[in-house]
Amino acid sequence: METKHIVLNVVFFGCFFLLQYVSGQTEPSYCFRFTWLGPEYDNTSTLLNTTCSEYLDDIRAVGVPCRTPFVVTYDGSPPDLDYLLDNYRDQVTCRRTKSQVCAKFTYSFNNEVQNATYMCTRAYTADRGYETGGCFKQRVDAHDVEVCLCESGRDPCNGASSFKISLVLITILACLKFVLI
Ligand SMILES: *[C@@H]1O[C@H](CO)[C@@H](O)[C@H](O)[C@H]1NC(C)=O
Ligand SMILES: *[C@@H]1O[C@H](CO)[C@@H](O)[C@H](O)[C@H]1NC(C)=O
Ligand SMILES: *[C@@H]1O[C@H](CO)[C@@H](O)[C@H](O)[C@H]1NC(C)=O
Q: Keyword Signal, does the record have it (predicted)?
């Protein structure tokens, strides 16, 4: 075998094992998991010490995404995710399994956010199959419902407004460049 081929093979298998190592996710992965009840609730609202099924029953909602704990803020503004992560990490995150993605569901009316639910979940669409990333929008009863999906590492990704480029993608690009030279 020519030296050139041996070198190429070494580079190829080096990249292969590096990819396996990076994508093997040696670190556990987490997503945010909670429901922000929206601007109608503030620190004067009675504390909701209840389950999603009781709550949805009370407001007569069916098939609406919901995850406890319920989060309300002093003035009804959206929650500070860094603050939640720093002070209540265990309560507001879930551990993501390999078949799951992080999801954020947002309900808006006339461009004002009404509430948001964060969770670990499996994502599937009939026309495209399993989904691992991106945002999808739909109008339901005059409300805009948006779901954004991503796959995170140790820090939840479903709070960011723009999703970070994953380490895996960077490695793939680096390897491709190497092989093409
Ligand atoms: C709610 O928060 C406001 C400040 O934003 C404070 O003045 C008020 O005392 C709080 N009310 C209760 C019931 O904690
Ligand atoms: C919430 O409910 C649980 C179980 O029913 C109870 O143990 C707990 O004391 C309640 N907390 C508050 C703040 O009401
Ligand atoms: C979020 O808002 C929508 C529209 O007002 C409502 O139908 C839904 O039940 C709400 N979800 C939660 C968890 O409160």
A: yes
pLDDT band at 13 (very low <50, low <70, confident <90, very high): low
**Domain membership flag for residue 147:** yes
Q: Which ligand is nearest to the CA of 34?
A: 3
Q: 90 lies in a domain?
A: yes
Atom of ligand 1 nearest to the CA of 43: 1
Q: Tell me what the mean pLDDT of segment 145-166 comes to.
A: 76
The range of the structural domain enclosing residue 70 comes to 27-161
This prediction's pTM: 0.75
From ligand 1's centre to the CA of 111, what distance in Å? 27
Of 32, 45, 135, residue with least CA distance to 83: 32
Closest Cα to atom 3 of ligand 3: 107
Answer yes or no: is 131 within a domain: yes
